[in-house]
């Protein structure tokens, strides 16, 4: 069973940057498409960004496009979410997710139901 551990959250001001990290426990990490989702209080968990297993393909929610960048270092078995120009509306718990079921080569996945394992989440709070 894959365990995912997120880190890097915190309290920042609007306009600041943060980098989240997610480290899966599986050695076959490089085989998995990965995604980041977030959930604000009283709202459903929503897609933020995703990356294909090899890192060649990425996708973003419209609300973060141009500000957030997802990347992965398969040698370090880590996926990152670089968040720039943060806004108060980015405040949420951010979750890392891994898809271990069969995937199409170079595909990324934006649906919550596309992922099999989830991390415990890391809080990001952006003050105005």
For this entry, give a set of tags.
128 residues; 7-stranded mixed β-sheet; 4-stranded antiparallel β-sheet
Question: How helical, in percent, are the residues?
Answer: under 10%
Strand/helix succession: EEEEEEEEEEE
Mean pLDDT: 93
Strand content: 35-45%
Low-confidence region ranges: none
Main sheet: strands, sense, barrel: 7 strands, mixed
Pairing-aware structural class of the strands and helices? mainly beta
Number of helices: 0
Q: C-alpha Rg, in Å?
A: 14 Å
- How would the global form be characterised? globular
Secondary structure layout plus pairing:
Layout: E1 4-7, E2 10-13, E3 18-24, E4 34-39, E5 46-51, E6 58-60, E7 68-73, E8 78-83, E9 92-98, E10 117-118, E11 122-127
Parallel strand pairs: 2-11
Antiparallel strand pairs: 1-3, 3-8, 4-5, 4-9, 5-6, 7-8, 9-10, 9-11
Structure summary:
This protein is mainly β and 128 residues long. The protein contains no helices and eleven strands. The strands form two sheets. Strands 2, 4, 5, 6, 9, 10 and 11 form a seven-stranded mixed sheet that branches. Strands 1-3-8-7 form a four-stranded antiparallel sheet, with no helix packed on it.
